[in-house]
């Protein structure tokens, strides 16, 4: 296993462990930091193993941190909806 895959697996364990504990800001600051950490990890997986494994880890990360993805989708829908009118 390469360093990037090991880092991605550690990232997933850390995110899941942190989600078990309550937070005043509903984990948003932690989510921003973890997303910033995940980007170079995904780039490393892409460069070392290709697009397929990078997409698998991207989908797994999106599943774990689903609320930022949901809010991004709502924002894009709102922006695109206003632009089409």
Polypeptide structure, described:
There is one protein chain. With 85 residues, the protein is mostly helical. The protein has one domain (3-84). The protein is built from 4 helices and no strands. Helix 1 runs antiparallel to helix 2, helix 1 (3-19) runs parallel beside helix 3 and helix 2 (28-49) runs antiparallel to helix 3. The longest helix is centred in the middle third of the chain and has 22 residues, at 28-49. The protein is flat. The N and C termini lie far apart (50 Å).
Short key terms for the protein model shown above:
85 residues, 85% helix, 0% strand, flat
Task: Provide a quick synopsis of the model.
This is DUF2484 family protein. With 85 residues, the chain is mostly helical. The chain is built from four helices and no strands.
Q: Percent of residues in beta strands?
A: under 5%
Shape field: flat
Counted beta strands:
0
Q: Could you tell me the mean pLDDT?
A: 92
Q: Given the structure, what is the number of helices?
A: 4
Q: Helicity range of the residues?
A: over 70%
Counting structural domains, the number is 1
Tell me the distance between the termini: 50 Å
The largest pleated sheet is described as: none
Order of helices and strands: HHHH
Keywords: Membrane, Transmembrane, Transmembrane helix
Organism: Cognatishimia coralii
Pfam families: DUF2484
InterPro entries: DUF2484 (IPR018919)
